């Protein structure tokens, strides 16, 4: 009797399929059956048609509603990539290629991730998958057209915005103090907010009255005013930040308040109401320009400020910056905590320190330390090594004893170099009005590296 062998067909390998869906805007997502649902339904039907090949649909949803395809900063896509990395997915199914990405570069990177983990990619409506070379070729062709379409759309949007601004229309952006956004018509418009507009005019008047930004910031802080507060469609509150010097400067230089719209450096008459008289706006711009020239002079003086970049505020752990004050030809130098200089003086307990007085205190401490045996011996050794013994020890000691004369003959650059070599840090403590000068161990020589505290 001849035995016959029966070959039993093996079951197809299980292919775990994840469906990814995306929609660029949030419009219509609140509907019971929206675009994301339609894309997923098409994906589920396609996976069901491949059941004989072992395809099965994973229950988890990867839906990005209201996210652009121009980048990969999408929560559902990031979850999808993470699950691929963990080996939980064999195939990714989308309705169209551009649902996954509209960027050729991003798509290439995503596909590299897929290939690295052995994951295939299928587009339902474009009838291909990446399991064969023809499918990969078609994918690259389709993706090139998707990116081309995205770039064309971008150009059209930019042209539309430019045309709208040339006609004086507001083309969108964050709401600003003084205006509300009226979206009742076919395009958004700016409508003056009476209460906020009054505050904006007061800020312009304050600047003309006080003459500089920091006093304006302090007065705004005293009155409790903040930047624009607005609400998103989902009810979240945004804005409402405290004013600082940059935000006040931004407000004062915004031509929208004078009834203008700006596009690429050109100004056009806006269709919105001006809430600051053009004459006041121009006066403020002239004052800002004048202060800017004075500021350039101040920055030039600050370059030679002895303690610039070395003096710190202990209370705020911030650098103390060198600034000039005064009007006309009289200028006064002082150091102020950078936090107080940015926001308001009330934000830091440290007062403004007269620059010349503080610099004199530090120089005196430097002169005192240089006359001590430890530093003198260390500097003598350095000088002798540098000149191979040409400089005698007595000459170095004699020079250091007359430190003030040497210091007065140095250029600002050389003085700065001496401080860099000798001093590690300088800290002002508002609690007891003291200056702490910490010298480098290399200068103190055999002495203990300790700090000297003096009254400010």
Structure, explained:
With 456 residues, the chain is of the alpha/beta class. 45% of the residues lie in helices and 19% in strands. The protein is built from 16 helices and 19 strands. A hairpin with a 4-residue loop joins strand 5 (120-123) and strand 6 (128-129). Helix 6 packs across helix 7 (213-223), helix 6 crosses helix 9 and helix 12 crosses helix 13.
From the structure above, extract its key features:
6-stranded mixed β-sheet, 456 residues, alpha/beta, flat, disordered C terminus, 7-stranded mixed β-sheet
Q: What does the secondary structure layout of this molecule look like, with pairings?
A:
Layout: E1 15-23, H1 35-49, E2 55-57, E3 62-65, H2 75-85, E4 91-94, H3 97-100, H4 104-116, E5 120-123, E6 128-129, H5 133-166, E7 179-182, E8 189-192, H6 194-210, H7 213-223, E9 229-231, E10 237-239, H8 245-252, E11 260-263, E12 266-269, H9 278-303, E13 311-313, E14 318-325, E15 332-337, H10 338-342, E16 353-354, H11 355-370, H12 373-387, H13 393-401, H14 403-409, H15 412-422, E17 423-429, E18 434-439, H16 441-444, E19 451-455
Parallel strand pairs: 1-2, 1-3, 1-4, 4-5, 13-17
Antiparallel strand pairs: 5-6, 7-8, 9-10, 11-12, 13-14, 14-15, 15-16, 17-18, 18-19
Helix pairs in contact: 6-7, 6-9, 12-13
What are the segments in which pLDDT stays under 50 over at least 5 consecutive residues? 1-8, 446-456
Helix-and-strand structural type: alpha/beta
Q: What is the alpha-carbon Rg in Å?
A: 35 Å
Shape: flat
Q: Work out the helix count.
A: 16
Span of the ends, CA to CA: 115 Å
How are the strands of the largest sheet arranged?
A: 16-15-14-13-17-18-19
Name the beta content range: 15-25%
> How is the biggest beta sheet arranged?
7 strands, mixed
Mean pLDDT: 79
């Amino acid at each position: 009797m001849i035995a016959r062998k029966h070959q039993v067909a093996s079951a197809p390998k299980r292919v775990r399929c994840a469906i990814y869906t995306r929609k660029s805007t949030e419009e219509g997502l609140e509907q019971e059956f929206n675009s994301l649902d339609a894309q997923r339904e098409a994906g589920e039907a396609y996976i069901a048609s491949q059941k004989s090949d072992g395809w099965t649909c994973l229950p988890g949803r990867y839906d990005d509603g209201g996210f652009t395809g121009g980048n990969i900063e999408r929560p559902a896509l990031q979850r999808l990539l993470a699950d691929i990395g963990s080996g939980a997915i064999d195939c990714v199914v989308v309705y169209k290629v551009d649902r996954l990405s509209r960027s050729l570069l991003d798509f290439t990177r995503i596909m590299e991730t897929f290939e690295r983990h052995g994951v295939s990619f299928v587009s339902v409506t474009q009838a291909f998958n990446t399991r064969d070379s023809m499918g990969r070729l078609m994918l690259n062709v389709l993706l090139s057209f998707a990116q081309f379409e995205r770039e064309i759309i971008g150009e059209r949007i930019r042209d539309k915005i430019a045309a709208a601004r040339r006609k004086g229309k507001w083309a969108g952006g964050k709401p600003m103090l003084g205006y509300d956004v009226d979206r009742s018509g076919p395009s958004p418009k700016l409508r003056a907010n009476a209460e906020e507009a009054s505050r904006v005019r007061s800020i312009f008047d304050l600047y003309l009255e006080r003459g500089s930004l920091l006093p304006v910031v302090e007065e705004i802080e005293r009155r409790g005013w903040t930047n624009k507060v607005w609400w998103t469609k989902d009810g979240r509150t945004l804005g409402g930040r405290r004013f600082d010097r940059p935000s006040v400067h931004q407000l004062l230089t915004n031509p929208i308040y004078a009834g203008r719209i700006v596009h690429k450096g050109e100004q056009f008459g806006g269709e919105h109401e001006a809430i600051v008289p053009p004459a006041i706006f121009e006066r403020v711009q002239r004052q800002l320009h004048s202060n800017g020239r004075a500021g350039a002079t101040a920055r030039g003086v600050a370059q030679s400020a002895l303690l610039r970049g070395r003096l710190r505020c202990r209370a705020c752990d911030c650098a103390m910056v060198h600034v000039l004050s005064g009007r006309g030809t009289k200028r006064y130098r002082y150091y102020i905590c950078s936090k107080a200089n940015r926001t308001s003086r009330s934000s830091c307990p440290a007062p403004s320190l007269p620059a010349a007085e503080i610099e004199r205190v530090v120089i005196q401490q430097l002169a005192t330390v240089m006359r001590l045996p430890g530093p003198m011996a260390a500097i003598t050794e350095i000088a002798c090594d540098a000149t191979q013994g040409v400089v005698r020890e007595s000459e170095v000691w004699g020079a250091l004893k007359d430190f003030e004369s040497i210091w007065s003959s140095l250029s600002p650059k050389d003085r700065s170099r001496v401080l860099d070599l000798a001093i590690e840090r300088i800290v002002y403590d508002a609690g007891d009005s003291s200056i702490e000068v910490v010298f480098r161990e290399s200068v103190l020589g055999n002495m203990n590296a300790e700090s000297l505290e003096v009254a400010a």
